[in-house]
From TrEMBL:
Primary localization: cytoplasm
Enzyme Commission code(s) on record: 6.1.1.23
Keywords recorded for this protein, A-Z: Aminoacyl-tRNA synthetase, ATP-binding, Cytoplasm, Ligase, Nucleotide-binding, Protein biosynthesis
Gene name of the record: aspS
PANTHER family in the record: ASPARTATE--TRNA LIGASE, MITOCHONDRIAL, ASPARTYL/LYSYL-TRNA SYNTHETASE
Protein name: Aspartate--tRNA(Asp/Asn) ligase
Species assigned in the record: Thermosinus carboxydivorans Nor1
Length: 510
């Protein structure tokens, strides 16, 4: 194998363009693809910036051509050559460097490579365990490198933004004391104190509040956190979060700043424009309209309360639910009245997974209304249902009747499922919003007492403080979640800073 002695890289592979034509360059990278056309050899050379085509011909350099014959995929090369602008007929529009190629005059074979266990390219169908076993190869794939580079751009933009707004970045301890939080701690035994353990932090919560008490005023940290919990799509043992704390501010100060930060990051990292301000929904409104506190607002199909419309009908299933203070809600699946009966039966099973005891439906066809429950409704009730749901010929109504919590969950999940099936979700759309005014408390049926929905240090709304001792269900918290495309990507709250108020909250939860 050759060495790098006397040769030094001048450019990255993906940087070269027409304006570099005629320049001598030195490139270093991996063989992504090699094509032998007899008198010519073409090698696609890859580094983190992209791919460029390198041309080897014996008349340019016999030794370089001989070495190109030896090269195989994933060999590591250093190439010296001249940038040539391609003719119009040979331009490759699929890559940024497609208007040029490099004619090689010297090549160094820096390292050979065995045949890799999978192709080093995007969109490969490879078992994840195999990818993880050969992680160093997986990370060569352009998709993975783009992810890492994007992450770098995002964290850099965060630091730039907060620095401009007077924040101080502080690294808080990684070895700390175990404190009650939402998951189990990872424990680290202490060598100097046998039998004692450190805990890895689930969040920098206590430390950042100490910093506020100390007068630092505005703190942020891109913090590594550890939680010993079962793996899920959005859960893993260690993760990185942006952690922020501010003193002497109100809720809207925090929301406005976070919106500005998101807009700045998207502009800096990917060149996207995020419209401001974000829409705001109360928790109650989000649950009523979407059946979830993290709604995906990239499409409509909102939940519609038809309880009053069906009140007094002869359909006993609906009426018994309403008599027990339940509710009946529907979604209007526009243009899907021709749904196959087999699919309808499958939807009944689908909502059962979320606690629903059944699923009613009405099809508005050109021939009229088709539904097994239509016979229980008078003309007046059918008219009210049609009006409140704005149903038209071609539409399909799907209805759930149960306790409000069951209706919200089952119909909210069904809304998402129908949107996926009908391709109603634009994958390129960014739909941000805030969900505000969460309930301060929720009732624990097992413990038969009120518990904090978020945590007991969240401040109640000023207008709700008077109900602390009498009506906990009525109290809303100064808590807020940022939601993007149906996923909660951030959240926080205004903390209690008054001892008397904190004691009242503790008293309310026993």
């Amino acid at each position: 194998m050759d060495t790098m002695a006397g040769i030094k890289r001048t450019h990255y592979c993906g940087e070269l363009r027409k304006e570099h034509g005629g320049q001598e360059v030195v490139l270093c990278g991996w063989v992504a693809r090699r094509r032998d056309h007899g008198g010519l050899i073409f090698i696609d050379l890859r580094d983190r910036s992209g791919i460029v085509q390198v041309v080897f011909a014996p008349e340019m350099d016999q030794e370089a051509f001989r070495k190109a014959e030896l090269a195989r995929n994933e060999y590591v090369l250093a190439v010296r050559g001249t940038v040539k602008v391609r003719s119009e007929a040979t331009v490759n529009p699929n890559i940024p460097t497609g208007e040029i190629e490099v004619y090689c005059r010297e090549v160094r074979l820096l390292n050979a490579a065995k045949t890799p266990p999978f192709y080093i390219q995007d969109n490969i169908d490879v078992d994840e365990l195999l990818r993880l076993k050969y992680r160093y190869l997986d990370l060569r794939r352009p998709e993975m490198q783009r992810n890492l580079i994007l992450r770098h751009r995002v964290t850099k933009a965060m630091r730039d933004f907060f620095d401009r707004h007077g924040f101080v970045e502080v690294e808080t301890p990684m070895l700390t004391k175990s404190t009650p939080e939402g998951a189990r701690d990872y424990l680290v035994p202490s060598r100097v104190n046998p039998g004692k353990f450190y805990a890895l932090p689930q969040s920098p919560q206590i430390f950042k509040q100490i910093l506020m008490v100390a007068g630092l005023d505005r703190y942020f940290q891109i913090a590594r956190c550890f939680r010993d919990e079962d793996l899920r799509a959005d859960r893993q043992p260690e993760f990185t979060q942006l952690d922020v704390e501010m003193s002497f501010v109100e809720r809207d100060d925090v929301l406005n700043l976070m919106e500005e930060m998101i807009a700045f990051i998207f502009k800096e990292a990917i060149g996207a424009t995020v419209p401001l301000p974000f829409p705001r929904l109360s928790y109650d409104e989000a649950m009523a309209r979407y059946g979830t506190d993290k709604p995906d607002t990239r499409f409509g199909m909102e939940l519609i309360d038809i309880s009053s419309a069906v009140q007094g009908s002869d359909f006993k299933v609906f009426q018994s639910v309403l008599d027990q203070n339940g509710q009946v809600k529907a979604i209007n699946v526009k243009g899907y009245a021709n749904i196959p009966r087999r699919e309808l039966d499958g939807l009944v099973e689908y909502v059962a997974n979320f606690g629903a005891k059944g699923l009613a439906w009405i099809c508005y066809t050109d021939e009229g209304i088709k539904s097994p429950i239509a016979k229980f409704f008078s003309d007046d009730i059918m008219r009210r249902i049609t009006e409140v749901t704005q149903a038209q010929p071609g539409d399909l109504l799907l209805m759930v009747a149960d306790r409000p919590a069951v209706v919200a969950t089952a119909l909210g999940q069904l809304r998402l499922e129908m949107a996926r099936r009908l391709n109603l979700i634009d994958p390129n759309k960014l739909s941000f919003l805030w969900v505000l005014d969460f309930p301060m408390f929720e009732y624990d049926e097992e413990e038969r007492r009120w518990v904090a929905m978020h945590h007991p240090f969240t401040s109640p709304r000023d207008e709700d403080v008077e109900f602390l001792g009498s009506d906990p269900a009525r109290i809303k918290a100064k808590a807020y979640d940022m939601v993007l495309n149906g996923t909660e990507i951030g959240g926080g709250s205004i903390r209690i800073y008054n001892r008397d108020l904190q004691e009242k909250v503790f008293a309310a939860i026993g």
